[in-house]
Structures are given as structure tokens and as C-alpha cells.
Design goal:
Blueprint (H helix, E strand, L loop, with lengths): L1 E4 L5 E5 L5 E2 L11 H4 L3 E3 L2 E8 L5 E6 L2 E6 L5 E6 L2 E8 L5 H8 L18 H6 L6 H63 L3 H7 L4 H6 L7 H13 L9 H6 L9
Antiparallel strand pairs: 1-2, 2-5, 3-4, 4-9, 6-7, 7-8, 8-9
């Protein structure tokens, strides 16, 4: 099977590889139409899903004799023509994208994850956006169904993504809470293990590593001499002093006394 597609993947045609042949426009009664004479066409036989239109609201048709000609409104490409008498053997444009090119289009940065087609950008996109809701009343009535289809598809996608987002948030929150619970349990287990190791020590081992008492610490410090101690020593020395005997009155009057104080 071989696939053909328009430039944006909106219209995909599945055909038998062995039944692809160049068509002869002169054999077609309406060959004068632009679709048949503008470029080469191929006769194909449908297979599998046949012709798939991702968004029928983005496909326009025109009638030429017994042929219905299809055009993609997104990329503006005429894709194929179907005869009312030969529905399974349409005529397609030879310029359509083929299998390998289709896969590249899916990887394009312009490929829409919402609508599953390549959004074609033009220089007049701003003008198109400004006039997106500027329809005449008669046009709006005929296009209302197509516009509603696009709106519904976008709304369904947004809702689906919202539900998926909330599910991811819940899963992330549950994973984080589980990780925190595991971390907390591990920390508590490690704390109990360390405490049990401390509690298993023998009493003498604990005393050896326990801090020294104040008395033990002070025994190694140099003795501090206070004013009270000095006064006590002075009083003791005064009590034990030796006074020289007097030789005469003159000595008592003129000779100064010398007092030896031993500190």
C-alpha cells in the first residue's frame, strides 16, 4: 500500500502500490478543467481506509460533469477527483506528498498536536485572524456547522489535556509525599540505631568518657592567692615578730625601730 497526502496531512489517500498508473486527460470528458490540465494526474485504486479527511470542514468540493474535485482549504491544494461511476478509482495529483514526505511533515514544528495537521502559515495570517469572525449572515449560516466542528475538537482536546495535567499533578504529589515519608522513616531509624549503640555501653566506659567534675578540674589549676589570704599571713607574722631589747633611753628616743615582718 502507498499513501498520498496534501501538503498539510488533512487529506490522505491510501492506494494499492501495484495499481498506480498515469492517467490520460484526453480520455476524460472534463479534461479541460484546471484539475486535469494543470499538472500530471494518476489513476489509483483505493485500499485500506481509502480516502481519509481529518477535517471535513477544511475540505471544499466542486462539481465538474460527473467528477467531484476536492480541495484542502488549509494548504490550498487540489488533491483528487472522484467519478460517481468509479468511486474506488479516483484520479489524484502526482504532486501529492508520498510516504517518506508524510513522516517528515509529522515532525514539522508547524504540526498541530490539537488538530493533527500541519498549520500552514502565510504572510497574510494577521489579516486572516482579524477577519476570522467577520462573516456575512448568509455565510455564517452555511459555515456554522464547520466552525462548530473545529470549536468542538479544540474544546475536547483542551479538556482532555486538563484532565491529563491534573492526573500528572496528583501523581507527582503522591510520589513526593511517598519520598518524604521514606526519608522521614529512614532518619528516625538511624536515630534509634545511634541511641541504642550509646545505651549498650558499660558503665565504666561511660564514666571514662564522661566530663570531669569541677573539683577534678580545679585540682590541676594553680592556687589563687586572694587579699584575704594576704591579710591572714600578715597577722600571723606580726604575732611572731621579734623586738630587740632597749639599751638606753637615748636608743629609745633616737634609734628607730625596725620591724621584721615575714610574709
Amino acid at each position: 500500500m502507498m499513501r498520498f497526502s496534501c501538503d498539510c496531512l488533512n487529506i490522505i489517500i491510501n492506494a494499492k502500490s501495484s495499481q498506480i498508473q498515469p492517467s490520460s486527460p484526453s480520455a476524460i470528458q472534463e479534461f479541460s478543467d484546471d484539475f486535469f490540465k494543470a499538472s500530471a494526474t494518476l489513476n489509483v485504486e483505493l485500499q485500506g481506509e481509502g480516502i481519509v479527511q481529518k477535517h471535513t470542514s477544511l475540505v471544499s468540493t466542486s462539481q465538474v460533469g460527473s467528477w467531484t474535485i476536492y480541495k484542502c482549504l488549509n494548504c490550498g491544494l487540489l488533491t483528487h477527483a472522484v467519478n460517481t461511476l468509479m468511486l474506488d478509482t479516483p484520479v489524484i495529483k502526482s504532486t501529492l506528498k508520498k510516504d517518506s514526505e508524510i513522516e517528515l511533515l509529522r515532525l514539522s514544528t508547524d504540526f498541530s498536536t490539537v488538530f493533527k495537521i500541519v498549520i500552514i502559515h502565510h504572510n497574510d495570517n494577521e489579516q486572516l485572524l482579524q477577519g476570522a469572525t467577520d462573516f456575512k449572515e448568509s455565510q455564517f449560516e452555511s459555515l456554522q456547522t464547520k466552525i462548530a466542528c473545529i470549536q468542538r475538537e479544540m474544546s475536547d482536546y483542551i479538556e482532555k489535556e486538563r484532565v491529563a495535567m491534573e492526573k500528572r499533578i496528583r501523581s507527582f504529589e503522591e510520589a513526593q509525599r511517598s519520598a518524604f515519608t521514606t526519608l522521614k522513616s529512614k532518619a528516625q531509624k538511624e536515630k534509634r540505631l545511634l541511641m541504642s549503640k550509646i545505651g549498650q555501653q558499660k558503665p565504666d566506659a561511660i564514666s571514662r568518657i564522661s566530663p570531669r567534675s569541677n573539683d577534678e578540674n580545679n585540682s590541676n589549676l594553680p592556687e589563687r592567692v586572694t587579699n584575704k589570704d594576704l591579710n591572714h599571713k600578715k597577722q600571723k607574722a606580726i604575732k611572731t615578730k621579734k623586738v630587740q631589747p632597749r639599751s638606753s633611753v637615748e636608743d629609745e628616743v633616737y634609734k628607730p625601730r625596725y620591724l621584721t615582718v615575714r610574709l
